[in-house]
Design brief:
406 residues; alpha+beta; Butyryl-Coa Dehydrogenase, subunit A, domain 1; Butyryl-CoA Dehydrogenase, subunit A, domain 2; Butyryl-CoA Dehydrogenase, subunit A, domain 3; four-stranded antiparallel β-sheet; three-stranded mixed β-sheet; 50% helix; FAD; flavoprotein; AcylCo_DH-like_C; Acyl-CoA_dehydrogenase
Length: 406
């Protein structure tokens, strides 16, 4: 499968429309959207309605739910344009893409009717509750949130934290322990409406001193129907892996959009009257920053398209996904830092989006898998795949990972 998008392809045409919408309708309002007050919420709803009317909402939803693209490779180019503003994925419905696919694949008919339909219409907000205060994020066996099935209802109790959109979500997909024994058979995903008695938002949680919609949750014997489990009870680990694989690629494409925006702001400053006065274009360090940022973005984009192509083909791609996530995280961090260096003190203020992107970029090295954990995992998998006597294809390394090293 080719990863190259031609200039005349439908995906490229849609990407141009999305970029135009983001640049014209969202970027001018970023300061107002950042306030997170009633005015910002009303503006978000207004822009979401405009996005639906403009045909740029939910572009990678399942096709039977008005999705416009069938392949992840096609969507990567569109997602990059969605990521130009940190507020655009929410306004354009992209934040719900992963939940839309998970519900479409694994939810019961009743759950699809109650939650999936409003979600893809932009009338509901979803969240995913996995991380816990007392557990180790990279070790699912340490999770303590529990769900017990009694009289046809799940009774869910536990605590979760750093849960995206949980303060405004209509429902949360909660990872809970539903049985004893092996972690591969004891965890499940259960869809919990946030207005259910016992569902509590304990407190908002900032990331590096900045509010980004994260919160801590407590579930006090929250009761939901038996059919609110995704897939079958005990399939939680398999569903978590499925979710992480697609989710990391979706988030990475948005981070790449922020990196590209930083690159453009950096180059604009170099070409500006101030930049000409300082002769920035003649300075070797400025040229080196332009080169390094562009190289990081191009490398991350290539890794993303490679992982996405294997996703579309149904080929094992765990190494490729993690490489792409790490590369996209590095790209947005380097781009934001370099743009601020070129901009000077002005880049630290509220006149540009760089300060917000810079802090957000630092969180990408922890969110969706900490760098150290992913690097260790990739190293272990590559060593297992290249062990003496193993057949190893560097173009498709994930195909050669022994089961024990997955």
């Amino acid at each position: 499968m080719s990863n190259v998008l031609t200039a005349a392809s439908p995906a490229m045409a849609l990407a141009r429309r999305v970029r135009q919408f983001v640049d014209e309708q969202i970027l001018p309002h970023e300061t107002r959207l950042a306030a997170e007050n009633d005015e910002a919420k009303a503006l978000t709803r207004e822009l979401t309605q405009l996005a639906r009317a403009s045909g740029v909402f939910g572009t990678f939803y399942p096709q039977e739910h008005n999705g416009r693209l069938a392949s992840l490779v096609d969507y990567i180019q569109v997602a990059e344009q969605e990521g130009r503003s940190e507020y655009a994925p929410g306004i354009l419905g992209a934040d719900a893409t992963l939940d839309a696919h998970m519900l479409k694949r694994h939810a019961s008919p009743a759950v699809k009717e109650r939650f999936l339909q409003p979600l893809v219409r932009g009338e509901a907000i979803s969240s995913y509750a996995m991380s816990e205060p007392e557990s180790i994020g990279s070790i699912p066996a340490t999770m303590t949130c529990r769900a017990e099935l009694r009289d046809g209802r799940w009774h869910v109790s536990g605590r979760k934290w750093f849960i995206c959109r949980s303060q405004v979500a209509n429902f949360a997909t909660v990872v809970a322990r539903t049985a004893e024994g092996s972690v591969t058979q004891s965890l499940s995903m259960i869809v919990v409406p946030t207005d259910t008695p016992g569902f509590e938002v304990v407190r908002p949680l900032s990331l590096l001193g900045r509010w980004q919609g994260q919160a801590e949750l407590a579930l006090h014997d929250v009761q939901v129907p038996q059919d609110h489990v995704l897939g079958l009870p005990g399939q939680g680990i398999a569903l978590m892996q499925e979710r992480l694989g697609l989710g990391r690629l979706l988030r990475s494409a948005h981070w790449l959009g922020q990196a590209q925006r930083c690159f453009e702001l950096m180059c604009q400053r170099i070409h500006s009257p101030k930049g000409q006065l300082a002769r920035l274009a003649d300075k070797q360090l400025a040229r080196a920053r332009v080169y390094k940022v562009y190289r990081s973005i191009a490398a991350a984009r290539g890794l993303l398209l490679d992982a996405a192509g294997k996703f579309d083909a149904g080929v094992s791609n765990s190494i490729e996904v993690n490489l792409a996530k790490l590369a996209a995280s590095d790209a947005v961090s380097e781009a934001a830092d370099s743009a601020i260096q070129i901009m000077g003190a002005e880049g630290l203020g509220e006149w540009t989006p760089l300060a917000g992107i810079y802090r957000g970029a630092k969180t990408t090295h922890i969110l969706d898998g900490a760098d150290d954990a992913l690097i260790s995992t990739i190293g272990r998998q590559l060593l297992a795949a290249t062990a003496p006597g193993a057949l190893f294809d560097p173009a498709s390394p994930s195909l050669h990972i022994p089961k024990a090293a997955e």
